């Protein structure tokens, strides 16, 4: 194995590992149970410009708020949800939220619409895992490119040596002697 093939193999293993990590990643998921008029809040530490995707699924209509620290405090102390970033109402809510700055953020899931209790599923993941899968795919493609390049180089090398250096007769790379002039094509020159 020449160094190019080893490099192709290492690149492939790295790419495959990235795809595996990205693909096996399971977004966190938790059941939420809400009596009428109640809510559950989930806190997240996010970096500036970090994006998270929140999904809330239910058979019933519910309301989801996204708030920063002060918006959350306002909602808890005053029962005033209007200072939250955004409000979503529905049975299936998918929110892609990008943090404007470093800090704590809250997802508040509320049952303000129904007279009966609501069961929901709250899940969240981050888009970083998709970038791992894409990066892994690109790395694997690169490894194929390196391998093809290495094979092309091998073919060129065989083509270059495809004639007997003594009489010029076309030869096969597996031959030991030239069939025309018996010139030794391989072996030790002493
Ligand atoms: Zn020859």
Percentage of residues in DSSP E strands: 25-35%
Largest sheet composition: 6 strands, antiparallel
Could you report the average pLDDT, rounded to the nearest whole number?
Answer: 87
The total of helices stands at 3
CATH architecture of the domain at 27-127: Sandwich
Bound molecules: zinc ion
Q: What percentage of residues falls in helices of 4 or more residues?
A: 25-40%
* Radius of gyration over C-alpha positions, nearest whole angstrom: 32 Å
- The H/E string reads HEEEHEEEH
Q: Give the N-terminus to C-terminus distance in angstroms.
A: 27 Å
Number of strands: 6
Low-confidence runs: none
Q: What is the CATH topology assignment of the domain at 27-127?
A: Jelly Rolls
Given helix and strand content, the structural type is alpha+beta
- Assembly state of the chains shown: single chain
Shape: rod-shaped
Name of the top-level CATH class of the domain at 27-127: Mainly Beta
Task: Give a written overview of the molecule.
- This protein is α+β, with helices and mostly antiparallel strands and 190 residues long.
- It has a domain at 27-127: Sandwich (Jelly Rolls), CATH 2.60.120.380.
- The protein has helices spanning 3-24, 69-78, 128-160, and strands spanning 28-34, 39-46, 51-68, 86-98, 103-110, 118-126.
- Strands 1, 2, 3, 4, 5 and 6 form a six-stranded antiparallel beta sheet that branches.
- α1 (3-24) packs antiparallel against α3.
- It is rod-shaped and about 100 Å long.
- Residues 164, 166-167, 169, 178, 180-181, 183 line the site of zinc ion (ZN).
